[in-house]
Amino acid sequence: MYKTLDPAELTAFVTGVTSGFGQALARRYVGAGAKVVGTGRRSERLEELKQELGENFHPVTLDVRDRPAVLKAIEGLPAGFAEINVLVNNAGLALGLEPAHEIDFDDWDTMVDTNIKGLLHCTHALLPGLVARNRGHVVNLSSIAGSYPYPGGNVYGATKAFVTQFSLNLRADLLGKQVRVTSVEPGLAETEFSEVRFKGASDKAAKVYEKVEPMVPEDIAEAIFWVTTLPRHLNINRIEMMPVIQAFSPLAIHRG
Questions:
Q1: What pTM value is reported for the model?
Q2: Which of 2, 148, 156, 209 is catalytic?
Q3: Contact between 227 and 171 (Cβ < 8 Å)
Q4: Residue 180 CB neighbour total at 10 angstroms
Q5: Nearest partner of 52 among 18, 82, 84, 6, judged by Cα
Q6: Residue 204: C-alpha distances to residues 96, 97, 145 (Å)
Q7: Rounded to whole angstroms, how far apart are CA atoms 187 and 244?
Q8: Hey, what CATH class is 7-241 in?
Q9: Is there a catalytic annotation at residue 156?
């Protein structure tokens, strides 16, 4: 019989657990017997999740953009949660859909600080422990936007291309170590993503998912759970996921 890892062996550090993929993954891991350190900026949602998931969930109010806070949070983990062996860099966002010459530069700053620097802060803080214990897995949430450009995707797509390429380079650095790396690259999924992108304009966000069946957070959570519980000799480098209703467009041509 094919033997996968016992989830009870896993202690996962998951960023962005207050909604979407991160929240679904926290539920999936804890439900299977794993421990989860879940981070997010919304303390009230973290407490609600703690009440739901119980003693195997340790909430940490954290903005991953703040490197000193990341270091302090990791140094302050209680004994039962201190030996992290799975890092899921899930926290990220898109802001705006304007073309590059019209967008607010502050939105670019926020996307770079969250999607790139926040991921780097957590990875740099936790990776030495994974290497020292010669056991672990880093999962980075990228996007199909990192591979396929679209109008208005400018810096968001560029940050996700960074995430994918950083994941592959990290894999190269870790050759010979029992530390795995996976880039997970979802397409259209219904979360708070679009509401954040349109800065609370729920009518615009709703139109993104109108008359379609997108992926749901549990789809992505199941993929992450799968790759992190495979036998230790096996590394899934990249997973690109789309709902059936999404595919590829022809290249745009401007006729003028």
A1: 0.96
A2: 156
A3: no
A4: 23
A5: 18
A6: 11, 11, 19
A7: 10
A8: alpha beta
A9: yes
Amino acid at 207: K
pLDDT tens, position by position, 21-36: 999 999 999 999 999 9
What residues form DSSP beta bridges with 181?
A: 138
236: left (phi over 0), alpha (psi -120 to 50) or beta: beta
Burial class (CB in 10 A: 0-12, 13-18, 19+), 97: middle
What are the CA-CA distances from residue 109 to residues 16, 104, 106 (Å)? Answer: 19, 9, 5
Q: In what order do the strands lie in the sheet with 57-61?
A: 57-61, 35-40, 11-15, 86-89, 136-141, 179-186, 238-241
End-to-end C-alpha distance for the chain, whole angstroms: 62
Residue with tokens 């549990």: 218
Length of the chain: 256
Rounded to whole angstroms, the Cα distance separating 65 from 42 reads 14
- Residue 198: pLDDT band by 50, 70, 90 thresholds? confident
Res 202 pLDDT > 90: no
Would the pLDDT of 204 be above 90?
A: no
